[in-house]
Amino acid sequence: MKTINKLMCCAAIAGTVALVPTKAFAATEDDKKFLAMAAQSDKNEITLSELAEQKATNPAVKTFAQHMVMEHTKMSESMAPFATSWGLNPPVEADSDHQKELNKLSKLSGNDFDKEYMDQMVSDHSKALSAFTSEAKDTKDVKFRTAVLKGKTIVAAHKNMAYDLKKKL
User: Fold this and answer.
1) CA gap 29, 60 in Å, rounded
2) Coil, helix or strand for 169?
3) pLDDT, position 27
4) Cα separation of 79 and 32, whole Å?
5) Is 16 exposed, middle or buried (0-12, 13-18, 19+ CB in 10 A)?
6) pTM recorded for the entire structure
7) Could you write out the DSSP letters of every residue in 29-82?
8) DSSP state, 109?
């Protein structure tokens, strides 16, 4: 009987502990800044890659661009719940630096276009990977960290793909 009482007591304690909510962390200003940067980065990649879908002459570059549009759209969607709950609005266009790059790319064609686009993809994904790495270490929000780590894996793959493709051009 004592064993049964002990087991029931342990079960009751375990059940109570399971019901205690884990501490939810409020988004920090750094988390919000990172998320705004990541959202802008996604928009930049989508905008440049949509142009590359039309203008790239190398089939591998065209395929890469299609992949970037699809993947960065998914990344934006996966981060949207955080942005919404934190009161952040998604960007509607490329930032000024990427608008200049878009204008530059618009004037290029053939291999010149492909090389410039891939140079930009390597550069952008290198910067983004660094930001994702820092945020994954710094954020205290467990759910957000999980999303950031998933994004980091995707961005690292994009960087490697872009670098490998750039070397072949």
Assistant:
1) 39
2) coil
3) 85
4) 11
5) exposed
6) 0.84
7) HHHHHHHHHHHHHHHHHHHHHHHHHHH--SHHHHHHHHHHHHHHHHHHHHHHHH
8) -
Burial 76-88 (b: 16+ CB within 10 A, else e): beebeebbeeeeb
- The dihedral over CA atoms of 102, 103, 109, 112, expressed in degrees to the nearest 10, equals -70
Provide the token pair at 137: 């270490």
Binned average pLDDT, 10 residues per bin, the chain of 169 residues: 43 38 67 97 98 98 98 96 95 97 98 98 98 97 96 98 97
- Alpha-carbon distance 68 to 121, whole Å? 9
DSSP element (H, E) containing 131 = helix 110-138
Residues in the chain: 169
Cα–Cα–Cα angle for 54, 114, 120, rounded to 5 degrees: 105
